[in-house]
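Pasting as-is:
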Amino acid sequence: MKKNVIVAQSGGPSPVINSTLRGIFDFCHSMPDIFGDIYAGFHGIEGVLKEELINLSAQKEEEIQYLSFTPAAGGIGTCRYKLRSSQLEDFNRVIDVFKAHNIGYFFYIGGNDSMDTANKVAKLAVEKGLDLIGVGGPKTIDNDVGDSEFKIIDHTPGYGSVARYWALNVQNANEENEGSYPADPVLVLQAMGRKIGFIPAAARLADPKREMPLQIYMTESKVTLPELADNVNDELRKSKRCIVVVSEGFDVGDIGARKDNFGHIAFGASQISVTQAVVNYLNEHGLKAKGLARGDTPGTDQRRNMIYASTVDIEEAYKLGQEAALIASRGESGYMSTILRNAGPIYSVRYDKVPLEVVANSERFFPESWISPNRFDVTDDFINYARPLIGENWPAIPLVNGIQRYARIEPIFVPQILPSYIPQGLR
């Protein structure tokens, strides 16, 4: 008997997360001899625990197609609920839901934490005698999934689009700063990236020839606020202006940090921004130019803005979803679909698989060799790595009456069979 499918998403959204979802759906839907009905966990694993399953097979075909141009997990939702090893009731509940709805395939789209969850669920299913295939689909704008040698995965879906966002926004910021520097000589921009500097580093893509007075400070730069101020003033003496891109994880002291359910600092919810701390310091200690430093703190706009999405990112996210479903169709469980770069001067990639437990226990750092000796720039090796990921053209965003047309997934829920349940972490 054919088994049904559940796909769910976890963690922070990205511009292309729904493209991976569509890739999984399209492949499964094209193979009805293997896959049964396709369901989605409403807001990730929380929806699975609550038995809130959206019937994707019952959706209009055109709405599924629009998923590739719908950002931020708006189709089926995501969550920041972490299944911890001690939460045995939750794990047993997941298995009960799978059994109740004849689930034989579980796809989880997310980062390291999500791959750990997918791995634990797949293993528990085997222990419980459930015939389940568990496969992960990679996602994170931070590009911190995998290893620093790029052998597990070259880059994650979402990063190319956020990199493009920063390349284009720094270009525009430079135009403004160049025109207004007599009054506002310093502009400080805050980029996402708690510990890993791939996002702020992408600002260099706006100016690969280094013609702008641009300084980039990642968490890994290990530069102090006084050193940053000295660097900025050196640039002001030379150029009369300076654009500073600073990681949200840059150490500025106490910002009244708040944390999410994964234990990660939620910078957008903290009491003050890193941008404001840097701006305050620069203005209080004095600039070697007339005028003041100003700050700009893009927030979740970086990970939800479809207009800036990379066409390369959209396509690769979709193919990684297809690859995940292909892995499952072969009866292979406990893997994540992955993307690896081929050697050579022309950018090309291949798709493969990697064990979930390898991904779950991995951690990628920004290569030290990609940080310039002055500690506020990146090397050409990084530019060569990241440049192909942002693509060449604007995405073909569908518009109706001048505004974006997103997928509209109808709330067609699968009838609930089990008693109601409150997840352990929400009690």
